[in-house]
Design a protein that fits this description.
The complex is a heterodimer. By secondary structure, chain A is mainly β. Chain A is built from no helices and 11 strands. In chain B, the strands form 2 sheets. In chain B, strands 2, 4, 5, 6, 9, 10 and 11 form a 7-stranded mixed β-sheet that branches. Chain B has a 4-stranded antiparallel β-sheet with strand order 1-3-8-7, with no helix packed on it. By secondary structure, chain B is mostly beta strands. Chain B has strands at about 5, 10-15, 20-25, 30-40, 40-50, 55, 65, 75-80, 85-95, 105, 110-115. The radius of gyration of chain B is 14 Å and the shape is globular. Chain B contains no helices and 11 strands. Classes of the chains: A mainly beta, B mainly beta. The interface of A and B includes residues 44 and 88 of A.
């Protein structure tokens, strides 16, 4: 079945850029998402990208999609301590239903002051 | 708007006991979902519903049942709890085919369940 993989941990210094990576196997992925989970809370959508796009920028966030390599990344510029959280990559496709997500394992980002 | 709420927030069960987790949303969303979150495994879909009165199995449905009698509520039941069901359970909802951006899922705060 489809799989989405992420590294489990990332540690950066405040003010640096963070890059969180994700690989997926589903070649029919239509939408790819980044969700953020703060401690003790549910997930919240950060940004998403359609599969026909290469890049999307939203303030401090840049999403890059390499469809050939099935690789998605999230870059956070000027990382702040408030960015410490778990970041989930997810994908959905129009074949099984765009509302049904496959989530990655999540990457725990720790921002050091 | 309260968004998506879940009841209870915490629960400890003994093996073999039953319980129901309640999810409620006030956004008039068509679709609702139950996930479980386990360390190193991300979120896995248990069951979902695409409308009032409908339910469908997700990736890990065994040991769980669901009901969607009212559009705003989605109940997750454990008939005979097992230690393997110790997890954090999240409910989510999304718009259906209403013409809006239908793909964002809105999550509740989670229920932490321990089965001893």
């Amino acid at each position: 079945g489809e799989d989405v993989e992420q590294s489990l941990f990332l540690s950066v210094r405040e003010g640096d850029s963070s890059v969180i990576n994700c690989t997926y196997t589903d070649s029919s992925s239509t939408y790819l998402y980044w969700y953020k989970q703060e401690p003790g809370a549910g997930l919240q959508l950060l940004t998403y990208i359609f599969s026909n796009m290469d890049m999307k920028q939203d303030q401090r966030l840049t999403v890059l999609l390499n469809k050939k390599d099935k690789h998605l990344s999230l870059r956070i510029a000027d990382t702040q301590t408030g960015d410490s959280a778990i970041y989930f990559c997810a994908e959905s496709d129009s074949l099984t239903g765009t509302y049904k997500y496959i989530f990655g394992t999540g990457t725990r980002l720790k921002v050091l002051a | 708007n309260a968004g998506v709420t879940q009841t209870p927030k915490f629960r400890v069960l003994k093996t073999g006991q039953s319980m129901t987790l309640l999810c409620a949303q006030d956004m008039n969303h068509e679709y609702m979902y139950w996930y479980r979150q386990d360390p190193g495994m991300g979120l896995r879909l248990i069951h979902y519903s695409v409308g009032e009165g409908t339910t469908a199995k997700g990736e890990v449905p065994d040991g769980y049942n669901v009901s969607r009698l009212k559009k705003q509520n989605f109940l997750l039941g454990l008939e005979s709890a097992a230690p393997s069901q110790t997890s954090v359970y999240f409910c989510a909802s999304s718009y259906g085919s209403s013409g809006r951006f239908t793909y964002e899922q809105y999550f509740g705060p989670g229920t932490r369940l321990t089965v001893t």
